[in-house]
Design goal:
three-stranded parallel sheet; 16 strands; 16% strand; AAA-ATPase-like domain-containing protein; AAA-ATPase-like_dom
Length: 480
């Protein structure tokens, strides 16, 4: 109890429950493997560590239970791992005479990895019994709580469990506990002498709307207070590989919407009450549920919604996540981070020859992923999404916006009006020979349609106009 003496929870009603019940806590975040055998072997080591933590309870066991316990503890071939969680709960109940609380964090991590690696059915068959034996009709259980990034109620993994109560970030119950409330963040910043940074902190780490509570990302807040530097913390943690792989193989409509999200738009999406992990990870229509529950999207404010509707207005919550999407797309499709940095530095320095050369090198790598006859527009969208991520903070990135007598393709507007702005227009050439003409036509269009009207109205005088023409894996850039 001494650990909690100076904390608010110490004076709450919950302290009367502290230390009252035996608790089994397991996190399955790192339970992964390239094959089912590899995953199962890691699970055995994991269960061994769990049993070793409670080794002392053997002293009160009868001989039969002691043999079962030691088979797991000593990793015998005939150890019963599939029922090991239930058996441990039963043993703790007998030892303490109090029912057991079971807490399982990231329950779905091994199933998601199993789908990605091709042993989904074996994992489902195992974990269905592993979970249901411990959590259903178990007289030793006080209660259990599971957390994950997928809301699964139709899944085979829970077909044996009809006593589940599901609460998500879309529900009001517990909504304020999924993150830090603004008052809590202000109090923390004030305590550490950092309250003056609240607006910047809000811009980067706030924006999540869970139920009716607006919350900050606790991981990012704690790391920011520790480091004192505003940057992406949560979005840079490991575990994004699966998401990136799914997005990498997504259809063109997904990229259309992701571009709109990174441009700051909110979009209505259907979020189902439950689905299979297999469907979630292989169906473009389900990807928004994964992005929502993973924290990459959030519900938009002031949303009018019918009580029985599953349509939600979604958006990117904050600058941290918007930057993640930009970096992820640019690095994923445009090659190495080194080259993308060279590209952007060349642009900012006005070195258009280097910009053209580097962009051409990047395009060679990037275009190898796509069917150019069908997906050229998708490529440009990914290109703009990448620029948003790398230049955000120094520039306001706007695409396909009205100005003058038409809509320009891309504008990079400096936060400081005395710095240089960039206007870009893209054209596709049908021949290599026609690239110069197309690039000049794009440049001419910027002037003829007066795309710089809005920039001049904002007091920006230094504007670099750039015409870009693409032909296959080649690029031509002209400017003035």
């Amino acid at each position: 109890k001494k650990l909690f003496e100076n904390l608010k929870i110490y004076n709450s009603e919950y302290m009367s429950e502290q230390g009252k019940y035996p608790v089994i806590f397991i996190s399955l975040k790192d339970l992964k493997g390239n094959t089912w055998e590899e995953c199962l072997n890691r699970l055995k080591l994991f269960i061994f560590d769990l049993y070793a933590e409670f080794e002392y309870i053997r002293e009160k066991m009868n001989e039969w239970d002691k043999r079962k316990f030691e088979k797991v503890l000593y990793e015998k071939e005939d150890a019963d791992y599939i029922m090991s969680l239930k058996f441990l709960a039963d043993s703790l109940y007998k030892y303490y005479g109090e029912k057991v609380i079971i807490l399982i964090d990231e329950y779905d991590a091994p199933i998601i990895n199993a789908f990605d690696k091709g042993y989904y059915n074996e994992a489902i068959n195992f974990f269905q019994t592993f979970y249901s034996s411990a959590l259903k009709t178990n007289n030793s259980l006080k209660y259990g709580a599971l957390t994950g990034i997928t809301r699964i109620i139709k899944e085979g993994i829970f077909s044996g469990l009809n006593n589940l109560k599901v609460d998500t970030i879309l529900d009001k119950k517990y909504s304020e506990y999924f993150g830090l409330l603004e008052g809590e963040v202000i109090e923390m910043l004030d305590y550490f002498g950092m309250k003056y940074k609240i607006e910047k902190v809000k811009e980067w780490y706030n924006g999540y709307l869970f139920g009716e509570s607006e919350v900050y990302n606790p991981w990012s807040i704690v790391n920011y207070i520790d480091d004192g530097e505003i940057k992406a913390y949560w979005a840079n943690v490991s575990g994004n590989t699966l998401l990136e792989n799914i997005l990498y193989h997504a259809g063109e409509s997904v990229y259309d919407d992701l571009k709109r999200f990174t441009d700051g738009e909110s979009i209505e999406k259907y979020i189902s009450d439950g689905t299979t992990i297999k469907s979630l990870l292989s169906n473009d229509d389900e990807i928004w549920q994964l992005l929502l529950y993973s924290g990459y999207l959030t519900k938009a404010k002031n949303q009018e919604k019918e009580s029985d509707s599953n349509i939600y207005n979604l958006k990117i919550p904050n600058k941290e996540i918007r930057k993640y999407f930009g970096n992820m797309f640019l690095n994923r499709f445009f090659g190495t981070e080194v080259k993308t940095n060279i590209l952007i530095k060349a642009l900012e320095n006005g070195d258009i020859k280097k910009f053209e050369k580097t962009l051409g090198e990047i395009m060679i790598n990037m275009l190898s992923h796509f069917d150019l006859d069908k997906e050229m527009e998708k490529i440009y969208q990914v290109f703009m999404i990448g620029l948003v991520g790398f230049l955000m903070g120094k520039y306001e990135i706007i695409s396909n916006d009205e100005s003058g007598y038409g809509r320009y393709d891309l504008a990079m507007i400096p936060i400081k009006s005395n710095e240089k702005a960039y206007l870009m227009e893209f054209k596709i050439s049908k021949t290599k020979k026609g690239m110069e003409e197309k690039a000049q036509k794009a440049l001419k269009q910027i002037d003829e349609k007066k795309y710089d009207t809005k920039l001049k109205a904002r007091g920006i005088k230094n504007i670099l106009k750039i015409g870009v023409a693409f032909y296959g894996k080649e690029v031509k850039v002209v400017f003035k």
